[in-house]
Amino acid sequence: MSEAFRTETAPTVRTEAVASSAGVATEVRQARAQDQHRIQFALKRVLDLVLAILALIVLAIPVILIVIAIKLDSSGPILFTQKRVGFAGKPFTIYKFRSMVVDAELMRGDVNGRNETGGPLFKMQHDPRMTGVGPFLRRFSLDEIPQLINVLIGDMSLVGPRPFLAAETENHDRWHQVRATAVPGMTGLWQVSGRSELPFEQIVALDVRYVEEWSLLMDIKIVLRTIPAVLIGRGAY
C-alpha cells in the first residue's frame, strides 16, 4: 500500500470509527432509558396493587355503610357497570357505586340539552336522575371506590388518563391514540385541576400531557394532590 493511499484513507477511517462509536453510545443510552422506563412501569404496577389493597382494607367500614345507604335509598343494584375504553383502545367494564336511578341511561334524552361541560362528555351539577345519596357519593368521589377492583384486575391504574366512553372518543382520533398508550386511572391531572369544572378539551389535553410527561414521581405527586381535592369536593358532581 502506498504512503499516499494510507494518508488519504486515515482520516476517513478515523471518522467512521468516531461515528460508529457515537452510534453505539446512543444505542446504549436508549437501551438504558428503555430499561429505566420498564422498571418504573413495574414499580407503578406494584404501587397500584399495594395501595389498592390497603385502600380496600381502610375503606371496608365506609363501603359497608355506603352499600346500606344505597339499598335503603332506592331500588336497584348496588354497583353500576359500564363499558369504557382502556389501554390500546381495548374495552373494559368499569365499576362504580350506583348514584343514579336504575333507568338513568334511558332518561338521557331528557337532559341532553343541559350539558355543562361541552363536547361529548356529559356532566350536569343538579342532575334530576340522581338518587338521594347520589350527590353525596359524587361530591366526595365515594362512588368511584369500586374502581379499586379495576385496579387490582389491571384494567385501570390509580393514576392515568380518564377512562372515556367509546362515544366520547369520537372525532378526537389523534388525542385518543396518545391517551390509549396509557392505562386509564382513577385519578389524574384532570382530577386535581378542576374535575368536572373543566371543559372536555382541557381534560383531554391534561391526559395527553400526563402521557407525554409521565414518571413515577408524577404519579406520586398526583396521588398526594388527589387527597385534598377529594376532601374539598370542588368540581365533583
Summarize the structure.
By secondary structure, the protein is mostly helical. The chain is 53% helix and 8% strand.
Give the topology string: H per helix, E per strand.
HHEEHHHEHEHH
What fraction of residues sit in β-strands? 5-15%
Strand order of the largest sheet: 1-2
The assigned structural class equals: mainly alpha
Mean pLDDT: 83
Approximately how much helix is present in the residues? 40-55%
Helical segment tally? 8
Q: What is the molecular shape?
A: globular
Rg, rounded, reads 25 Å
Low-confidence stretches: none
Distance between the termini: 83 Å
| Overall tally of structural domains | 1
Strands, helices and their partners?
Elements: H1 3-58, H2 60-73, E1 79-85, E2 91-97, H3 108-111, H4 134-139, H5 147-153, E3 157-159, H6 173-179, E4 185-187, H7 200-213, H8 216-232
Parallel strand pairs: 3-4
Antiparallel strand pairs: 1-2
Helix pairs in contact: 1-5, 6-7
Features:
single chain, 237 residues, mainly alpha, two-stranded antiparallel ribbon, 8 helices, 4 strands
Question: What does this 3D model show about the protein?
Answer:
By secondary structure, this protein is mostly helical. The protein has one domain (41-232). It is built from 8 helices and 4 strands. It has helices spanning 3-58, 60-73, 108-111, 134-139, 147-153, 173-179, 200-213, 216-232; strands spanning 79-85, 91-97, 157-159, 185-187. The strands form 2 sheets. The protein has a two-stranded antiparallel ribbon. A two-stranded parallel sheet has the order 3-4. α6 (173-179) crosses α7 (200-213). The longest helix is centred in the first third of the chain and has 56 residues, at 3-58.
